[in-house]
Every structure is written in structure tokens, then in C-alpha cells.
Amino acid sequence: MTNLHADEAFLGHYQFSHDPFAPRVPGFKFFPAQRKPVLGQLHHLARYSQLLLAVTGPRGSGKTLLRQALVASTNKQSVQSVVIAARSGGVDAAAVLRQIAQGLAVAQADLRSILAQVAQLSLTGQEVYLLVDDAELLDDSALQALLALAAGDGPGHPHVFLFASSAVVPRLESLANGEECVHAIELQPYSLDEMRDYLAQRLEGAGQGIELLSDEQLEDIHEQSSGWPGLVNQVARDVMIESMLAERAGSRAGGAGLKLPVKHLVALVVVALGVTAAWFMQSHSEQPASSPEVALQQPAAIPAAPSAPSDGVAPAVEFAGGNQPLPLPLVGEAQPVIRQPLAQAAGEGEAEEPAADLSQMAPPVAPASQPSLPAATQTAQIAPAPAPAPAPAPAPAPAPAPAPAVAPVAKPVAAAPAPVKPAAPVAKPVASAPVKPAPVAAKPASQGVTWYTGQPAAHFALQVFGTRSESAAKSFVGQQGSQYHYYRKSHQGQALYVVTYGSFASRAAAQAAVKSMPAKLQAGKPFPKSFASIKQEIAR
Hints:
Among the domains are: 152 residues, P-loop containing nucleotide triphosphate hydrolases (Rossmann fold, 3-Layer(aba) Sandwich), CATH 3.40.50.300; 61 residues; 91 residues, 2-Layer Sandwich (Alpha-Beta Plaits), CATH 3.30.70. The termini are close together. The chain is elongated. Helix 4 runs parallel beside helix 5, helix 4 packs across helix 6 and helix 9 crosses helix 10. It is an alpha/beta fold. The strands form two sheets. Strands 2-3-4-1-5 form a five-stranded parallel sheet, sandwiched between helices. The protein contains 19 helices and nine strands.
């Protein structure tokens, strides 16, 4: 995360207007009291000393801020400043001389032409300041050229300032063959009070105050960063992110839902009551076909069939009202029920129908001369009687008399009701064996995500570099070995693949491991990064 592109969750939690710990925040200026004497000493040495001036300190010690203050505090009418940035390792003399020649508007990028231009400016009352950032990245030929420029050859010479790590001083002394050639000024880290003022100014610029950090957290930040401002920014941000995550985890464990506004809780209660009422109404509307209400609608009396005569000839059977339309069933689908003669039904020998199907029978029309049976006998008559022995097919019945009277039955005999051909039975769903879903090929996760999530949040890794090409990151990790991993993050709306090295229990251990890395990787200035912030970037 760089200039003002902070994580939205981090900014929203603390209500920051921007990331207070970004390397370059517009309008931020902090210059502690201990750096003011150093700035005055540089101006003094530039005026009265012909030695090359080196300001040394580790990465993030504030060297660039001091260089900016030096340029800003010079008189623009009498001093022409040329700033050279060594952004990669192995910068040679030719590249340095080209930048100086461009800054001084010199056609030829060589020592003689540059010194001649410096002498010409000196005659007009102007001095030349050559300021080199990250000078430890220069190779020996570039350092040798800068020493020659600082020594001068004639009436004028430029004042050369190197801002670098302390490792550049022995190299300069070796190139000078033991002669005095450099005046080194070593920067000092911030004290606890200076660090507190530094963080207070950064937090106030983002709309908050130093009260976001407790005294214990401030002491921990000072101890981990050793007071160097660049590391103070990283450690302070990690501490605040860890505090944010712990606070959110605690609120979830403690029941964050109780913090909803009252109107939201009332709305939830109303919705729950509505769902419950709808469920009860649905359950009452779905009554089974064999419910007590349906059972009460069964016919009150079922006519008994007349007994067969002794001669074994089955009499012709007539149904009263046979020429009338059949009534619709009381329950079930509106389909007519076709009845068959009792004798034919008895001869077919069909199996007994389930009792539940009786609810789909239409109530038969009882003959006028047939007395209603007592209610107590209804249950007995509903149960079908054993089928009689099969009888021969009856002869065609003679034409009925004009007004046939129904012969009274001396003794009513309970007979089986005419079997009803049931409607097409509804097929019960057959529980098929569960079909196992076809295995879906898992989408390969970004390399190293599982490894990163398995690391303790308090551990640190060294961030080596970032690239927009995943293939480049994968190829680099494959060549370097198992200690290198990479993960994907979102940077300015695009994917960025960050390569890291190792897992260390503390920031100091991670910083010490930089020296064991190849020189080419050290030139990229790897820096420690907590796994807490890495996990947050992966999750985002």
C-alpha cells in the first residue's frame, strides 16, 4: 500500500482521511530539534570544507527528509542544486556524469566539461550542490568520479553530498588510498518523546490524535523500530491493524448483534412474527384425506344386497335411480365412480381396497323401502364381507313390470358394498439413491496463500519485490528455493504479486537476515513486513 491508497477497512475503522503512515504524505513536514544542528553543520561544511560530505544512517532514518530540507534552505539565487537518485544497484560513472551534465546544461558528460561549467558559474557568484540519494547503490567508478568532482581542478569545484548507509564510508576511504577525502555525519534515531511528536503530527494530519495509541503501544513501537522514522511508520501501522483485528474479533465473540438500533430490532421481531403466522396458517390448511372431518361425511347407511334364492339362480339387480347422474365424490378429484353389479363384483374376486379409498366413493341412493341402519352398525357394514362362492352368469332379466315393487327382505343380511374401481392410484415417489455430484476441479489458489495463512500473525517476512506479472513471480520463487513465496494483492485497482523471503519471529531477526541474501536482492532493499498485514492484504 502506497501514497494515500490505504486499506478501506483500516481507514474506516479509525476514520482516517488518508493513510497517516504512507511514505509520502502531501503537506507533512516534521523536523525534530536534533536534526537542526545537522542541517546547520552541512551548510557550514559546504562553505568552508572541500571534502566530500556523507550523511549516513540505515534505511528509513530520515536521510531523504534531511536532503529535502537542505535544498529548501539554500539560497536559490546563489546555489544551484542537482539531485541524483540511484534507484538501482550498479550505477556506474557514465550514468552519474550524464545526470550531472543534464542538470547543469552541459553538452559533454565528462569530468572536464562539468568542472569547466562549475568554474563558469562560480565566476557569476553561483555555487553548485550535487546531492546523491541512496549513494550506497553506486559502483566504485561512480564514487571515484564524485571524489574527483569534490576535489575540483581549478578555481571552482562543486560541493558533493552523499546520503547513504554507513557502508559507503569505508569504500570511499579505500578509493582515496587512505587520504582524507570524506566528512561523515551519522544520523541518530528519534527518542521516545520525539517519536511521540512525530506520530502525533502524522495522526493529526489524517484527522485523529495520538490518543489512538496507548503508552504501552508507543513504547512497543519505539522498541521495535529503534526510533528510526521509516520503521516507526511500518510498526505503528502493524500495531494499529492488530488492535483493530483484536477489537473486531472481540465484538463478534461478545455478540455484536445486540448493538443494532432499536428500530432494526423491532423490524426483525415483526418479520419473525409474520413468518410464524404464515407457517401456522399453511399447516392448518393442509389436512389429510383421512382427517376426522372427512370421515364424518361418509354415507350414513349402505343398502344391503338381497340374499340369493335357494335355487342358486342369481336374481337381476337393479339400482334405484340408476338412470340418474352419479353424484360427485365428496373428497378427492371430481371424477365419476363407475359401479358394477354386486354379483359380478363378487365373481371377480378382487382384493380388498384400503380403507382410505372409501372417502372417494359417492354415497349410494338407498331404496325407499329400506330402513336406515343404526349408526352403531355403520362401522361393521363398512368393512367388506367375505365374497360368496362364484355363481353362473345370470340369464337376461325379463322386462320389468310397469310398477315393480321391491320385495321386502325378511331379514336384512349385511352384504359387501359394491367394489368401486378406484381412480388411478397416485404413484408414491420412489426414493432413488442419492446421486453423487460430479467432482468439480478445485480452482488452484494463488501460490503460497495456504502457507501465508498458516504463519503466526506476530511473525515477519522480508518483502523482496512486487511485480504485475504472476509468471515472473512464480519463476523467481521456483529458482530461489523454498524460503521464497509470493502472494497476490490489489494495488491501485490492479493485481500485484509480492515476493517474500522467510518467516522470522521478530522484526530484528528479519532485518538481520537481509545480510544473508544475495547482493543483487539486497540492492532492492528488502524490508520486514508482519504476517498480520500480509493476511489482511490477501483477504482484501
